[in-house]
Design goal:
The protein is α/β, with parallel strands linked by helices. The chain is built from 11 helices and 5 strands. It has a 5-stranded parallel β-sheet, sandwiched between helices. α5 links the parallel β2 and β3. α8 packs across α10 (228-244) and α10 (228-244) crosses α11. The structure holds adenosine-5'-triphosphate. Residues 19-22, 59-65, 122, 166, 200, 203, 228-229, 232 line the site of adenosine-5'-triphosphate.
């Protein structure tokens, strides 16, 4: 299933240099992570430890990759889940799962002999929707309350906990989540710029034999509105087209056809806003 695949993907470690573009967000994130890396200095200065970072932006822009890279960079263990995993019909189940998530994270960090852990919650809006709003109901509210309790209670002496959460609807989030001491950093992750798209294309073409005249710059120019995930699909589709044509190299036409294929398969807004 998708979830199983995602969980397997989480086992693969990621460096920041495997994430194309997103220079601004990467820099902001690295500045925030300094709080974890220099935790002794942070506590000496009496600075409140950083508890949570929200990564906000459209799907497929590398939010999960950034969370994983953050874990690697800070030598933390990494545990991932999605807001939808907490949505249950039965009262109390969501809240119980939140408690288990935090205790599992601490257990894993101890097992891996790490001093810190990153808990990644994808689709935080599913459980973090404004309490009392239309799309919330009592069971969700309980789950969100439990998340707030866990975030406030994170004080394990030996293991530092950083919660990273992704959303593409930050406007839906309950204000309580964005209060200091909870998610007090929001890093916006936009769709990649042309330069970003070129970097992402290069990253995903690295292990593919490209024909000498393939012009990735032109591919980047033609893929306005594509996310990193879309660009990964483009490189993969291009290689599949080469295979179908019994070629050992991927040629420019494969890329052109792959772009069309990805546009047909997805609803990509290709009209530049300016
Ligand atoms: P979602 O919100 O849909 O979960 P996401 O923002 O978490 O998406 P990721 O899961 O990090 O996106 O990215 C999906 C895939 O897209 C990655 O595994 C990678 O192959 C590719 N990708 C996305 N962004 C980038 C990037 N900046 N550099 C390289 N690859 C990227």
């Amino acid at each position: 299933s998708m979830t199983e695949q995602k969980n397997k993907d989480y086992l693969i470690s990621i460096n920041f240099d495997q994430i194309g573009g997103q220079e601004g967000p990467k820099k902001e994130l690295l500045e925030a992570l300094d709080f974890i890396v220099n935790k002794d200095l942070v506590s000496k200065l009496g600075i409140r430890p950083l508890k949570g970072i929200i990564l906000a932006g459209p799907p497929g822009t590398g939010k999960t990759l950034l969370a994983k890279a953050a874990a690697k960079f800070t030598d933390s263990s990494f545990i991932a889940t999605s807001g939808s995993e907490f949505v249950e019909m039965y009262a109390g189940v969501g809240a119980k799962r939140v408690r288990k998530l935090f205790s599992d994270a601490i257990k894993l960090a101890k097992k891996e002999k790490k001093e810190s852990t990153v808990i990644f919650i994808d689709e935080i809006d599913v459980l973090g929707v404004k309490r009392g709003s239309n799309s919330s109901h009592m069971e969700y509210d309980q789950t969100l309350n439990q998340l707030l309790v866990e975030m406030d209670g994170v004080k394990s002496k030996d293991i530092q906990v950083l919660i990273m959460a992704a959303t593409n609807r930050i406007d839906l989030l309950d204000d309580a989540l964005l209060r200091p001491g909870r998610f007090d950093r929001v890093v916006n992750i936009p769709l990649p710029s042309k330069e970003g798209r070129l970097e992402i294309l290069k990253i995903h073409s690295k292990n593919k034999p490209l024909d000498d005249v393939v012009d990735l710059d032109s591919v980047a120019a033609q893929t306005f509105g594509f996310s990193g995930a879309h660009l990964e699909s483009v490189t993969n589709e291009a290689a599949i087209l080469a295979l179908r044509n019994n070629r050992v190299n991927v040629i420019q036409k494969d890329f052109q056809d792959a772009i069309e294929k990805v546009i047909m398969g997805e609803k990509i807004d290709r009209v530049p806003s300016k």
